[in-house]
Amino acid sequence: MRFTILDRYMLTELAGPFVFGLSAFTLIFAATEILNIGKLVSNEHAPLWAALLVFAWSLPADIVLVIPMALLLGTLLAIQRLSGESEIAAMKAAGITFARIVAPLLAVGILMSFVTLYLQEGLVPYADDQLIEIENNVINHVSAFSRDLTVSAPLPGGGRQVTVATAYEPNSRALLHVTLIQYDNHNDPRQIVFADRAEFTADKWTLQNSSVYRFNPDGTTLAEPRIPQQEVEIGERPTDLMKRMSNDDPENMSRSEIADVVRSGQLTEPEVRKYVTTYQEKLARPFACFVFILIAIPFGLRSMRTSGSASLGFGLSLVIVFVYYVVMTVCSFAAEAFLSFAAFWAWVPNLLFTAIGLNRLRHAAMV
User: Fold this and answer.
1) Model confidence over 209-222: pLDDT tens digits?
2) 167-169/204-215 β-pairing
3) pLDDT tens-digit map of 139-162
4) CA distance readout (Å), 69 to 109, 122, 243, 316, 321
5) Cβ(175)–Cβ(165) under 8 Å?
6) What's the pLDDT score for residue 152?
7) CA 317, CA 311: separation in Å to the nearest integer?
8) pLDDT value for 138
9) How close are the terminal C-alpha atoms of the chain, in Å?
10) Running DSSP on this structure, what letter comes out for residue 309?
11) 198 in helix, strand or coil?
């Protein structure tokens, strides 16, 4: 297949409604964020510039959600117009197959799926990092952690080390009131370290004003109080800690960051289920762009042929999106319950709607 006048014409027909849908759905999501700006300025006494930055950095996540919806609405409106003015019938009369007519739209769906995946994995996590930093450092002026931090890491010679801290200073990247407990292969404590703080500089953690207590196999204890500085390996970097402890939400992470957190071994079993399920879903969700275009084509031909109202297309797109996300929510619960099949359940909504779309498209092509 080569790019032809037909392809250019179909893409032009899609472009206008897509931009309209993107703007409309983005404004709906942005309305909530605008209300948050007012609350930040009036209730939290946040600077106006900080509230505006919070609004700006929250938009990328909304846009990733909006793109599939905008493609759905854009395709419905474009096919409605072409069908209502008998342009599709004229193309068929000229010998162009229905599959060839809609091929440019399906190609856009595939392309936009990968674009959405790129934005989800690259732009959204970065924007969320900036959002958290502004909220913690400028608006709230509090630690990023709302609960005690605990890190468990294996030791090179066997055993494990558990690190507990009560707070974290984002500006200095320091843990406060740190306790390190080292266990041997038999899970018996062999060393406890207490420190006022642990600072991360030059890719390493340094304990300040620490005291070390070693438990020997013969039952004796060796104490080393008041050590000014000593280097330790905690098992996570400050950026990893902030991701895991301040967000505690895999939706705000990229798939690579979710995989790193899961591999760290710091999660409880319910958290592992949530993280693994989200990891699989984040690969499947962007391809809703293709699925929505596929299912919108036959709906635009049949359900909207007698009406030229854009409001009907907007309402129908909301119904399709609602049903899709209800199915996705049900599958998400199933994925968490049957973790071994999480990858399968993540793709069930796309597979189900693709089957429906192909079936309706086949019947529409015969008309």
Assistant:
1) 899 998 887 778 88
2) unpaired
3) 655 444 445 677 777 777 778 888
4) 12, 21, 29, 11, 7
5) yes
6) 75
7) 10
8) 64
9) 25
10) -
11) strand
